[in-house]
Amino acid sequence: MKIEKYLDIAPEVAEAVKAGKPVVALESTIISHGMPYPQNVETALNVEKVIRDNGAIPATIAIIGGRLKAGLSRDEIEYLGKTGSGVTKVSRRDLPVIVAKGMDGATTVATTMIIAAMAGIKIFATGGIGGVHRGAQQTFDISADLEELAMTNVTVVCAGAKAILDLPLTLEYLETKGVPVIGYGTKELPAFYTRTSGLSVDYEIDTPAELAKTIFVKHELGMNGGILVTNPIPEKYSMDPKVINKAIDEAIAEANAKGIKGKETTPFLLAKVKEITGGDSLDSNIQLVYNNAALAARTAVELSKMK
Ligand code: PSU
Ligand code: MN
To answer: Which of 110, 135, 236, 250 could form a disulfide with 148 if both were Cys (CB 3.0 to 4.6 A apart)?
Structure first.
């Protein structure tokens, strides 16, 4: 079986991968479930531009009509953004079913990593990853993103994780699974809306070239699994921790009261936090995605020079 049976790589992306040029993957659940329309479409298009401005080729990933796609057209991005949560959120367990049924799907961090790896893309930029949810001791709610980081060879550049998660347990899980967690220019795990969380990361790395070297070494050693790069939100867009933490606590209380569970939990909490904080958290969210895209692109450029 050739992977082309299921996977469409956009010509520009295929050419770049083949030539060893820098490419950065992007996810689509952030478009459909992570932000409201029309800001989601605007952000998805701008983020591709940020990647180009920093010397790499963007490949936004999704499933359209049962085809795995690495590189979307403008119309496809517009469609995912407009349809929003009407598009199925596809994590690892959903992927074969959605393909077999010929359906559309927005890819999470986990499935974006899977498809990026199939397409030969080594670096992926997003906002926040899924992780161990608060109360996971009872609910067992641990995002498939963490398991994917344990096994799939893609580096994920994010702004840490939202405090809707249990951040200490998320770090423990990543340690158990052998996933390097790197702070970009920091020794602290950023908490998405804020630059600090009070938790330490394993290592601080300060340049894209050093990041690229770590990725290169891991691949050369044949060690499977990803690397998590946590890049703090730019100071001027970071939020007041008191405001954001209060919103998160309220969102979690409401999710519990409503009995929200499974794959609905993360989208529900994201939407609730946004509603409580008004537009502020959305602005921060958009800016940190651009910041991560720029770092991912610059790292991809450095990685493309390594032999
Ligand atoms: N966290 C965010 N924004 C997001 C997501 C998480 O701050 O958009 C999305 C990502 O696609 C992530 C997914 O992979 O939610 C995790 O969902 P779950 O917890 O159901 O695995
Ligand atoms: Mn979950």
So the answer is: 110
